[in-house]
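Workshop exercise sheet. Pairs work together: one partner reads the sequence aloud, the other fills in the structure field after running the prediction. Swap roles for the next sheet.
Pair: D.N. / O.F.
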Amino acid sequence: MDRKDWTRIGLAAAVVLVPGGFLLGAALAAQRLREKARDKAAVPPDEVA
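Structure field:
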């Protein structure tokens, strides 16, 4: 395989894998925000620092 083939393979891999990484990152960030909101809501008002 010559260099042009590897370039196309790399580009195809980037097009396929990068959006999945963004989706995974967004899902993890959303999960963390939901956990923070849930934990903040669970603290009784007199214990808020």
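Discussion prompt: The chain has a mean pLDDT of 89. What would you look at next?
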